Amino acid sequence: MRAQTQQPADGWARVYFTGYTLFTLGTGDYVPGTAWTQVATTLAALTGLFVVTLSITYFVQVVQAVVHKREVAQHIHTLGRDGADIVVGGWTGERFSPMFDQHLVSLTAPLLRLAEQHVAYPIVQYFHAPSPRKAPACAVAALDDALLPLRYALPADARPDPSATGPLWLAVGQVLRTLRPFFPAAVREKPEVPLSALRRAGLPTVDEAEYRGAVRDHAERRRLLRGFLSSDGWDSRHGA
User: Could you tell me if 20 and 26 are in contact, meaning their C-beta atoms sit under 8 angstroms apart?
Assistant: First the structure.
């Protein structure tokens, strides 16, 4: 009923009362007239407080997740525009720079967080970047394109510290496995970085057959990468 006149509320007034109770405005124009409506009003106010608070919190977390995945993508692309560029950029002419190892190490935790945010907030997958440099799919593909030759295309004494590449390699694999339900695996695997690109930059490489064997061993991983790119609206040339 209306608080000032003690008259029963009409239909629109009840809608108004329900709305401001759910959104916890507490204007007080209308008050419940019986004990059971007082209880119902209290429960409605608690429900509204929970829903509004949960919605705001969820929205903030989604925004943070979108920002985080774009930050990760841009961090990876600061190392190089593609896999070959990342590898060549870390090579000093005799060995890989210690700072390059540190960059690889620093990417492991953010990548794992990126994957878990996609699971916690599935709506994040519908936020697409306008350019490859900000797209996590392109960044992860470029990073894996670099990790494959870093682990298998170079002689053992020329490779970067395994404690830097090993966890990151596993992290990329974990990202692909975690996000697997969100995209289909491609029929064909993503093309790898050719040894010729590394040789032109002066890096020592293993025998072609040995490298090809390693690539075949990870064909399923490369198909997942291609599927990840496709699901985000990019083709295999991005991050290649």
Answer: yes
